[in-house]
Specification:
two-stranded antiparallel ribbon; 7 helices; 2 strands; mainly alpha; globular; about 170 residues; about 70% helix
Length: about 170
């Protein structure tokens, strides 16, 4: 049975990695998207939530240093700055959102503690930064959702638009 599965889906042993360096044009595009996200977080929070939901499935990225700069990260930073400028509470008013943030902070604490005895600090730092990204993204989404109350049109619109594009791309392949 396993042999049949392996013949149908052979493992990729040596997947080629291609580098996509940050260029002036891609940096300008990232900056424009960050400014758009900041503006939407300040003026149109529903659209900011739609933008965040829309961007998650797409892997527009560029290499910078030893990491990648992604569309999702740029949008999160823009929305977070916009929310901070609007004086959004750092601790969400929702009890369940606070619990999730506390759990995320506990995971971040475990990552930091694991770094005390780590032989290689690079992977620990990368995981800590990734967890910080997830926490900021959750804070942005929770803040926008709490502010919008029961109005989920922005979230639904972003999810539907992303789903349609992914499905059409999959069908075209």
């Amino acid at each position: 049975m396993v042999t049949i599965a392996l013949t149908l889906l052979p493992p990729i042993v040596d997947q080629p990695l291609t580098s996509s360096p940050l260029t002036f044009l891609s940096a300008a595009a990232f900056l424009a998207v960050a400014c758009l996200a900041l503006f939407l977080a300040l003026r149109r929070p529903q659209w900011a939530m739609a933008l965040l939901a829309f961007a998650i499935p797409f892997a527009f990225y560029r290499d910078i240093g030893g990491t990648t700069l992604t569309l999702e990260k740029v949008i999160i930073v823009g929305i977070a700055i916009g929310l901070l400028l609007r004086r959004a509470p750092l601790v969400p008013k929702s009890t369940s959102a606070r619990r999730i943030l506390i759990a995320g902070l506990a995971v971040l604490g475990a990552i930091v503690i694991s770094g005390i005895q780590a032989t290689y600090m690079g992977p620990v730092a990368r995981e800590a930064l990734k967890m910080i990204e997830y926490l900021v993204m959750f804070w942005c989404a929770a803040s926008l959702m709490i502010e919008s109350g029961n109005d989920t049109r922005g979230l639904e619109g972003g999810v539907i638009a992303a789903t349609v594009i992914v499905v059409l791309d999959a069908l075209s392949q």
